[in-house]
């Protein structure tokens, strides 16, 4: 441990002592199922859970709603941090007009379990669990669309595919892959304050506790999300409701208290990038980068940097969109998603 690590540990212990000696226990931090608005409950009822490697994983699987589509393709949606499959609630009905849709909540997110012990929240773990849920549902092949942390889960799977380490039932799985706004290049991420804090558990853990005791977690969380929203948003009411929904799903089962665990994937990103770039260099399936251009956390410089790396590189920019452009501009998201079928 360097001197920075020791300082972080001492600071962490100090904050922890302050936080645990606080006596006011009346701040309600956890959101329970009964507290959720109807439409969030409906999303939960629409999906199912299955036990994967010891934890319940939530997923939504909807069959193509248009009978005229023969042999409907499947879209596999892979959400990012700190969100869930619910990011796609505005687009799922339109997407099912064109094909089947599978969207899961990674372990630790949305309506999936959040194990506190004996779980690393590494991207390897997330990749294995994602493959397991696809296999459980019986998806044979899919057009994969990933976002944010989901991009890195997919590049980990693509690295295994490139090295021929995937189980053989995934030999013909990928019909195409679409990456959307994510920190696929560690050195180009514009980290949020919260990410810095949470990356260091010795500071992040006690600070999360302190935030809860002080009752400031909700405000802080929403400010962080607002900072990556499109500055061009027009409907403020809708924007605020979307951000509140993100907050509710993070407060559900008190997940916000464990943000320092859920942020572990950032370390994986810095460690395994070379492995993923190797897979991207040898990509032999149709791939696209579709990136909104006003995302402060994962800027357009990230996909542009892959121009000379990814074979048949294709980049589409979405004007004035922020990080969560599937929520900000669902119409455009659908147009781009189904473009792959043409
Ligand atoms: C975690 O692992 C330890 C050691 O194997 C075990 O004693 C403990 O019960 C496990 N905890 C949970 C929640 O599974």
Radius of gyration: 20 Å
Subunit arrangement of the protein: single chain
Low-confidence stretches: none
Main beta sheet strand tally, sense and closure: 8 strands, mixed
Q: Tally the beta strands.
A: 8
Give the amount of beta strand, in percent. 5-15%
> What is the molecular shape?
globular
**Cofactors and ligands present?**
2-acetamido-2-deoxy-beta-D-glucopyranose
Could you give the order of strands across the largest sheet? 1-2-4-3-5-6-7-8
What's the helix-strand series?
Answer: HHEEEHEHEHEHHHHHHEHEHH
Distance between the termini: 53 Å
Query: Which class do the helix and strand fractions yield?
Result: alpha/beta
The helical percent reads 40-55%
Give average pLDDT, whole number: 92
How many DSSP H or I helices? 14
Topology readout:
Layout: H1 3-21, H2 38-46, E1 48-52, E2 55-62, E3 74-78, H3 92-95, E4 100-104, H4 123-137, E5 142-147, H5 149-162, E6 174-180, H6 193-199, H7 201-214, H8 217-226, H9 236-251, H10 259-262, H11 265-281, E7 287-292, H12 301-304, E8 315-318, H13 325-328, H14 330-338
Parallel strand pairs: 3-4, 3-5, 5-6, 6-7, 7-8
Antiparallel strand pairs: 1-2, 2-4
Helix pairs in contact: 1-7, 4-5, 5-11, 8-9
The structure holds 2-acetamido-2-deoxy-beta-D-glucopyranose.
